[in-house]
Specification:
about 130 residues; 8 helices; globular; binds protoporphyrin IX containing FE
């Protein structure tokens, strides 16, 4: 079987099927979080899960099938705080752990997502010219 020292992050997440399971777990947690759920009241969750799964697959070095919006544009004007972002990262870590992903790979995912914090949150976006 695949040696984990050589497997790509995408493989360690279980490829497309593994990522789909993680994304299911992630949005179950997000919609169960009373701080985060209100952001998604108008959202078609089937589409949202598909976009997130494709985005994560590409971010993990898998196939680049993401055709959604630029993440700065997708989140602009929603008033998302740094604390909201950190809660989502926490739920992602829990969903990854529940899916059996090892701690090292979870840290890699979190590390890959952290640069998005200023892109997605209102706090720092207000200080940027973009
Ligand atoms: C690492 C963090 C995040 C990633 C990778 C991410 C990823 C995405 C992606 C791929 C989309 C779809 C864009 C499209 O449809 O073209 C999206 C939309 C969205 N995200 Fe995020 N997101 C993150 C954090 C957050 C946070 C912290 C919140 C709020 C608490 C949030 C709320 C939303 C909302 C409300 C939408 C629009 C849903 C709709 O179309 O109705 N996201 N996000």
């Amino acid at each position: 079987m695949t040696d984990t020292t050589e497997a790509t992050l995408y493989q360690r997440l279980g490829e497309g099927a593994g990522i789909a399971a993680v994304v299911d777990g992630l949005y179950t947690r997000i919609l169960g979080d009373e701080t985060l759920a209100p952001y998604f009241t108008e959202t078609r969750m089937v589409d949202q899960k598909r976009h997130m799964a494709l985005f994560l697959a590409a971010a993990a070095g898998g196939p680049d099938g993401y055709k959604g919006k630029d993440l700065g544009v997708a989140h602009a004007g929603r008033g998302i705080s740094g604390e909201d972002f950190d809660r989502v990262i926490g739920h992602a870590a829990s969903a990854l752990a529940e899916a059996g992903v090892d701690a090292d790979a979870i840290n890699q995912v979190a590390g890959a997502l952290m640069p998005l914090r200023p892109v997605i949150t209102n706090e720092v976006a207000a200080e940027q010219t973009a």
